[in-house]
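tool=predict chain=A
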Amino acid sequence: MLGTLCVGLVGLALAGCVPAQSQEPSAVVSPPEAFAAIGPDYRVIDSTEGLDAPYGVGVTSDGDRLYVSGGNGDASGIARIALDGTVDWLGHGVTVPGLLALDGDSVYVVDRGDGSVDVSHDRGETWALLPGAQVAAPEGIAARHGVIAISSPSTDSLLLSSDGGVTWRTVDAATGGFAGPAGVAIDVDGTVFVVNSRTGSVSVGASGGASWTTVDAAQTGFVAPYAIAAGPDGVLYVTDPGASGLARSVDHGASWTSSDGFANAWAVGVAPDGSIYLTDGIQTVVQLAAVPGPVSGLAAAWNQDGTLGVTWAGASVNGGSAVTGQTVRVEPQFDATSWAANYPSMAPDSDQAGQLTSGWTSGVDASATSATIAGLPSGVPVRVLLSTSNDVGESASVELAVAAR
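tool=predict ok
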């Protein structure tokens, strides 16, 4: 399937190569041809070219193995790539490997040829058919903590199990709002996300698919989305070949930010550090660094001297690139009364007033988990915003409202 994979991702030489079925791949750190148009929102960490139709991609929760599926017929296969550079070509019964999903030691791969799903519960050492998981023309699959979801674009439905595949139920289009359901993801909270390739919407199944809502294309901006992945910090990524985009959501799919230059992006997977893996379905797998994930545990309290103490736990993922700094911003929420009490001689529309209302900003060390902001007006509630930066860019801000002192 993947031709000769003798030089691999994470810059390591790969052992156990199979005879070449296409050109020999080479590791590069500049954008490969398939991703040459990507913009500044992401940075290439590594890539491998010369593969044979890489399709699905996934990273284990401990980050020590990458799985890539793809190819057709005799050239089809699943590669397991370890951090030490070893490549294992896994035995399986899939005739046309499609997208894959990982859940602990379990690996699930849809067979686009016969509609079945193959599963390994020992990281790919042995394989079997997943009982009851027969779907007409399956496309996407996701698995997390015993919840398994398989999409069927041809029937506009989702096959769903909440007990690891012991029992199954079908979620139809009327319930799930499906329209050409393709990629599927399950986030850390157990919410199921399905991208709809015909409408550009995202179907959202709360509590493992117990109830469903839809985020329509007017909110997502998608044209023909294909794959979706959920990171360990809850950040979602969607490939949208129809719009040449890679989209990112930090609010559970309610809003999306898209970056151009991804016309060839196919499957997407997220590593524990927040870096991203993409396949192009032709010959390339690329690893990208992204901006850090949002910080957690943001809290703030007034001190007796009138300063504001801000604390946080830091970003759980760095996006695949070391954090270089953090920014704390505090914005007073003035009304007419509080403005007059603090600045009785200053017109609200003056230049100096504009500087005051725009807030106080403090840059802090990359490893800091606290900051103290002085000079804030009294009797005014404030909004605290905290973001983290690496060499790719700045994360989305986490916000906290604080009552007046």
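The domain at 295-402 is CATH 2.60.40.10 (Immunoglobulin-like). The chain has a mean pLDDT of 87.
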